[in-house]
């Protein structure tokens, strides 16, 4: 039985290595050539795997890139193999919960600011955002694969704060997520001004406290 | 004196007609062919004016398109001729002020929702948004010509509410504008969900009242 498990563990390890190589290659290539010129062939060549290895796990280049984003964002490449495409890593990921919703939101939003200010992430995310804006099918894929799981993570933390009495019981958590994160995204995408921790902190404080006196 | 004023008024009227024709042509063409293929030649041909007429008033196709957006948004083509490029119409425009900031914000945001749901506006604005996202120079032009004047209009209304004691005295008005409008823009640009008056109303109410209990 031990003999049977060892090779299987070796396969899983190799799968995880390949998977991580594919996602890293996709992320880097998207930054270099843009989404339109990104190809499964190019990703396979850079990752040093066969095209069939990629097609076994992902249906399209968009699906690969979304998982690459999930890996970059959550720091996890998924559980390797299996084709669930990073779903597990999001299931396991969570926003920090120190019991102080304001402090935790600032921690997370500061990390988002740092990500958007990272040139490598900036180019890749900008390429993807542009494609999403004019390709309705890709937008649907993005909504399902990347936006929804990330949104669920955020809502889970907000729900815990709601249950702890730190947020209004009747707060619409989708509206809350949008209020907090959309201004960051617009300021970044339209380059409307510097994206700083100070700005993120002001967003969190104003969204939590409201605009009224 | 009357004889001298009549031809001059005629010229002004013709200028205004040409100006409106150019802006309408730019707006429609952008929706049809996208920003990248939009050209001064194409706009001139559709508007029935010479290229020189356009260059007399605007330095670039981006500048024409921004004024076309201002006309669409404020309903004013500017004061005709003169080359100020629609600046006057924004100066004169104002957000509604009935004395009730919540009701007035809803009125304005409902109008924004209706605009974004208008297929003609959707295509043109999407073309422009995409170009802004990957062209830093155009982003700077957008920030100066379209975003800043529109933002000033919004801040003026918020400042009046602040002075009337309806908004916090220490509220950062730029943060407030972002909290209110950015979620609409992101939901539209990334097609994250239906853009409805109900959603806009929830945004206004949550931004004003805050997320806390």
TrEMBL record, chains A, B:
Keyword Transcription included in the entry's annotation: yes
Keywords: DNA-binding, Transcription, Transcription regulation
Record-linked InterPro entries: Homeodomain-like_sf, HTH-type_TetR-like_transc_reg, HTH_TetR, Tet_transcr_reg_TetR-rel_C_sf, TetR_C
PROSITE patterns associated with the record: HTH_TETR_2
Annotated coiled-coil segments of the chain: none
Domain annotation HTH tetR-type: ranges: 16-76
DNA-binding region coordinates: 39-58
UniProt GO MF annotations: DNA-binding transcription factor activity; transcription cis-regulatory region binding
Record-given protein name: AcrR family transcriptional regulator
Origin species: Streptosporangium sandarakinum
Organism ancestry: Bacteria, Bacillati, Actinomycetota, Actinomycetes, Streptosporangiales
